[in-house]
Amino acid sequence: MALKNNSINDAELVRRLRVVPDFPVKGVQFFDVTTLFKDADALEEIISRICALYKDKGITKVAGIESRGFIAGAAVAARLGAGFVPVRKPGKLPAKVVSESYAKEYGTDTIEIHADAITPDDVVLIHDDIIATGGTACAAIRLVKQFQPKALYTNFIIDITDVPRATPLPEDVAVTAILHLSER
């Protein structure tokens, strides 16, 4: 089977995105990227765009944040010739872990990485589907920084631009997003 090489513009990606009002709590407009993942052309476009941004950065590990960050993150890692590191919720990883707790817009959470997942020789790309208030992203950045990698980058499929960042992103970490959307 030949892969399609059609480029999909931002407006078309947004059209294929499902928006769910009042999820997971009232007042939150949830951007559901699973509709992009189930569409082969949209998925290919997302992976290709992310890889184009990082192809010359020497990425050795992609750290995908549970759970939707696993999907594109693993595909990007494979295409870049890098390893994949799952960033999981507590109790999901079987060996020794390093943890980071954080507040988010509707509660608190903790994320973990295996203690042997990243070395100081690694160049790490943290990937997740969405950034809104920044809590999860900042926790992942703090977590990965504990390993003292050579370089650290962060990427999202969607940056929700009109949600105030409760936790400002560190200025020393380059952040990119494929789509910049408004919750309103």
Overview of the molecule:
- The protein is of the alpha/beta class and 184 residues long.
- It has helices at 10-15, 34-37, 40-54, 68-80, 135-145; strands spanning 18-21, 29-32, 61-65, 83-87, 97-104, 107-114, 123-131, 151-160, 174-181.
- The chain has a five-stranded parallel beta sheet with strand order 4-3-7-8-9, sandwiched between helices. Strands 1-2 form a two-stranded antiparallel sheet. Strands 5-6 form a two-stranded antiparallel ribbon.
- Helix 5 links the parallel strand 7 and strand 8.
- Helix 3 (40-54) packs across helix 4.
- The chain starts with 9 loop residues before the first helix and ends with a strand.
Brief write-up:
The chain has helices at 10-15, 34-37, 40-54, 68-80, 135-145; strands at 18-21, 29-32, 61-65, 83-87, 97-104, 107-114, 123-131, 151-160, 174-181. With 184 residues, it is an alpha/beta fold.
Main sheet overview = 5 strands, parallel
Class by SSE composition: alpha/beta
Helix content: 25-40%
- Poorly predicted regions: none
Sheet-strand content, in percent, reads: 25-35%
Tally of strands: 9
Average of pLDDT: 92
Ends: how far apart? 40 Å
